[in-house]
Amino acid sequence: MTIQTPVAQLTAEAYPKVTRKTDFKVIDSTDLNYFHSILSNDEILEAQSSEELASFNQDWMKKYRGQSHLVLLPNSTEKVSKIMKYCNDNKLAVVPQGGNTDLVGASVPVFDEIVLSLRNMNKVRSFDPVSGTFKCDAGVVMRDAHQFLHDHDHIFPLDLPSRNNCHVGGVVSTNAGGLNLLRYGSLHGNVLGLEVVLPNGEIISSINALRKDNTGYDLKQLFIGAEGTIGVITGVSILAAAKPKAFNAIFCGIENFDIVQDLFVKAKSELSEILSAFEFMDRGSVEMTIDYLKDMTFPLQNHHNFYVLIETSGSNKKHDDEKLNAFLSSALESKLFSEGVIAKDHADYERLWTWRKSVPPACNINGGYKYDMSLQLKDLYSVCEAVTKRLDEAGLIGDAPKPIVKSVGYGHVGDGNIHLNIAVRVFTKEIEGLLEPFVYEYIASKKGSISAEHGVGFHKKGHLHYSRSDIEIRFMKDVKKHYDPNGILNPYKYI
Amino acid sequence: MTIQTPVAQLTAEAYPKVTRKTDFKVIDSTDLNYFHSILSNDEILEAQSSEELASFNQDWMKKYRGQSHLVLLPNSTEKVSKIMKYCNDNKLAVVPQGGNTDLVGASVPVFDEIVLSLRNMNKVRSFDPVSGTFKCDAGVVMRDAHQFLHDHDHIFPLDLPSRNNCHVGGVVSTNAGGLNLLRYGSLHGNVLGLEVVLPNGEIISSINALRKDNTGYDLKQLFIGAEGTIGVITGVSILAAAKPKAFNAIFCGIENFDIVQDLFVKAKSELSEILSAFEFMDRGSVEMTIDYLKDMTFPLQNHHNFYVLIETSGSNKKHDDEKLNAFLSSALESKLFSEGVIAKDHADYERLWTWRKSVPPACNINGGYKYDMSLQLKDLYSVCEAVTKRLDEAGLIGDAPKPIVKSVGYGHVGDGNIHLNIAVRVFTKEIEGLLEPFVYEYIASKKGSISAEHGVGFHKKGHLHYSRSDIEIRFMKDVKKHYDPNGILNPYKYI
After folding, report:
1. Please, what is the Cα angle at B86 between B81 and B88, to 5 degrees?
2. Structural domains in chain B?
3. What angle separates helix B77-90 from helix B29-38, to the nearest 10 degrees?
4. For position A61, what pLDDT does the model report?
5. Are B187 and B176 within 8 A, CB to CB?
6. Where do the FAD-binding PCMH-type domain residues begin and end (chains A, B) (predicted)?
């Protein structure tokens, strides 16, 4: 659950039960002298520059705020290694930080941990246009990776709304999903190699690994999604795909979620290799978006219970449009949707996407509770129905002074991923009590995941048992202990 | 290196330096009584049925032969769990075995290890046509998985020449690559969840996991490619793709490997989403295949230094053929190849594939040394050139009585994977001395992998350092020790 508040609060105050581990050393002048001996002035930020420090302590959602007095911004893997070795030897706690766009409090300190920012490691290392292998420092901003590959007729196999800020290394550490997963698959398949600095300063690298390599356990996989708890990713090798030459989209209205699923099956079968997104929104999320996008004309004539945006991308505009038109006609004929439009041109394509991409900000205007979950497709929307019913029966949804504006669901049908947003006028203990643990228990009862793509971080640390078995959690703890025996890396989080 | 010999030899005799670990218990009547108490008669094979036992001791290449007197073939995960717990408690060594089509001696015993065959766990568990999630027992034969999914308008995302024998669980344990990797990606991306029995009998399962799940370290990844050394995979959940409606292929002759790479870049750009295979063969491998396929007419008029087979698969035959024809014309115009043909119909498509699929048997008639490696594409063919030059300079290649018929290379351009085959009239120490460690050192110097898709097994156990760093090997050993502290699972192999 993410409560959005305009004012940041110290995490340590908001969660008084979490206490600073006493075996972590408090930074002193000896430590500072050491860091100054290996780093230049623009690679260290200390307490005196408090305004800049604040941005490293504060998370993207403004929900968590740490109290670090020291940010290190090394510009090489070797320096990261020296920093980690020193911190491990001296039991100084460290939080690795990428673009700090994380949504679960994973990338900011809780107490006085040192922030290790990868921001100064921002170089593209190499690109091989024949194989599509792209290698870069962890701190390369995703937008820059996209631009570089775009200029070389390729695309980065993942895109996110936070592309202007998030780092490639942070995305890998989070195992982010994003908008292209349906087409290009997950990072576990696309990451070819990683360069990682371990808590003791050792560098473990598979960055020169090739597309196929069957020489032993695939260790790099553990760092994908580890949120910086067992090592600091400093370099990434990833498989870039050929850049599509044509994009198109349709936007349609559908009366129930069973038909949404039927349409998805049809799209997989008929659009097949050119299908690149299949997104859904419920009536409530679109109603809020219509209010939010006041000046834009809604693309459909009528209102429906569900809306679906289908994107195609391929190498031949004429072929793609033929396929999409045939799909549209036959879906209308089979009454799979009540109403649908196809983008007339690229501007129209962008406009249709605006109706999907504006749902999250439209639901956030008044603040809200946000959940990111994955479920079997047949159960995907049921969590939204169950939660809405529960809140409605308690008489909490409606016009002011009721506290809840709307409870809505939207997300990625192709990935079985729903975002549940409860838009509120005011945060109340009553709403919270109705939501938790109900939502997590509901997801557990359907064998779903309580975090589809946002991760665990500080936020869901105590909730893993809703999605993972005791034995899995025990093995995860063993992994943490093995790689980070002193527990200095990103403490108080994850596992 | 794989030496193919027509007669099987006891591994223990062929490798006298490998000795039986004395802390493993020798099976006695108490053990047999226990296994009989939990298994029915058709789930146990003992010494008396020696002929059937032999097939479990003998590997696919007839290079390795073990001496097991006991094969257990449990039909449920619970029985696998009981077996493993008992074996762990009693220090009985165990070799998990799937279809036993492995090429590196991973799936047969070395001494008297118990063979744990997954053959009786052969049920499809479920298929969800909406999400494409396919769940099955580990012992389902890949051909049956393909057939099941074919009947449900989907395809298994991986295919292998050994599809009639290999098991789904074995394929995952080997992290097999196969013929569709270029299109559908690796098992690390496609496997959604695994059910695994650990050496101590505990069951760790993520088989209900969904396409997106970011709740902690992705532990299942370690078992993909672990070759049964840290757990026994008993169930697999995998993402099936929609079945393509159209297939086509072109076969062409090319004069040098630089142009092969140029053609690959062009194919990725122009065929893009319908490109599903890009295979190459050198002149020598095709010459041997022409001899092997005596009665078949070679599809091209002239001979060339390289041959490429390009496959497309998609959802619209007319669109695909248009793309492929345009590609063929423009590649001919740009002189990217000297000669090329496109399949006229499905039978012709199958015939073109025969010229690629027959290369391995054509190179094996006289026996041979086989290497499976991956390299950066620019270096891919250079290993074949370097090895051939070395053998030729030693005067070993040519007509009888020279020992070597031909040294040839072929493989998957799309995956950076070359198979180097030295077809011989006779195996000699001189050839072996020229090949090793030269081949491994060459691969190491180019930062390639000494095993692209076949794995490590018994065969490459001592060679990992050519592709992996000391720290990686140390961490791999730690993984093994952690999951299998008694070392009972698939001993003498891997790491």
Report:
1. 95
2. 2-117 (3.30.43.10), 124-242 (3.30.465.10), 246-359 (3.30.70.2190), 366-454 (3.30.70.2740)
3. 160
4. 74
5. yes
6. 64-243
Residues A439-450: tens digit of each pLDDT: 999 999 998 998
Q: How far apart are CA A188 and CA B89, in angstroms?
A: 35
Cα–Cα distance, A130 to B37 (Å, whole number): 59
Burial, A30: exposed, middle or buried (Cβ in 10 Å; 0-12, 13-18, 19+)? exposed
Q: Tokens 């942070």 — which residue?
A: A170
The residues, any chain, with a CB within 8 Å of residue B109's CB and separated by 6 or more, are B57, B66, B67, B68, B93, B95, B115
Q: Which of A89-93, A102-106, A162-166, B214-218 has the highest mean pLDDT?
A: A89-93
User: Are B190 and B238 spatial neighbours (Cβ–Cβ below 8 Å)?
Assistant: yes
pLDDT score, position A366? 66
Residue B304 confidence class, pLDDT cut points 50, 70, 90: very high
Check CB contact of A443 with chain B, cutoff 8 Å.
Answer: no
* DSSP β-ladder status, B114-117 and B70-72: parallel
Closest CB from A212, A217, A468 relative to B177: A212
Virtual CA dihedral for A60, A65, A69, A73, nearest 10 degrees? Answer: -20
Q: How many CB atoms lie within 10 A of CB B396?
A: 18
- In chain B, residues with a C-beta closer than 8 Å to the C-beta of A202 are 471
Interchain contact, B315 vs A224, CB within 8 Å: no
Residue A494 Rama label (left phi>0; alpha psi -120 to 50; beta): left
| Alpha-carbon dihedral A214, A218, A219, A222, rounded to 10 degrees | 170
Establish, for the pair of chains A and B, how many residue pairs have beta carbons separated by less than 8 Å.
266
Q: What was the pLDDT predicted at A292?
A: 94
How far is the CA of A205 from the CAs of A176, A217, A225, A232, B471, in angstroms?
21, 14, 17, 11, 9
Q: What is the pLDDT of residues A19-63, one digit of tens each?
A: 999 999 999 999 999 999 999 999 999 976 678 899 999 988 778
Q: How confident is the model at residue A2 (pLDDT cuts 50, 70, 90)?
A: very low
**What pLDDT score does A429 carry?**
84
Q: What is the pLDDT of residues A425-439, one digit of tens each?
A: 887 889 989 998 999
Q: What is the pLDDT of residues A283-338, one digit of tens each?
A: 999 999 999 999 999 999 999 999 999 999 999 999 999 999 999 999 999 999 88
Which residue, A455, A440, A226, is CA-closest to B218? A226
What was the ipTM of the complex prediction? 0.93
Contacts of B475 in chain A (CB under 8 A): 204, 217, 219
CA–CA dist A351, A357 (Å, integer): 10
What b/e string do you get for A414-423 counting C-beta neighbours within 10 Å, with b at 16 or more? bbbbbbbbbb
CA distances A427 to A372, A423, A424, A462, Å, are 19, 10, 7, 22
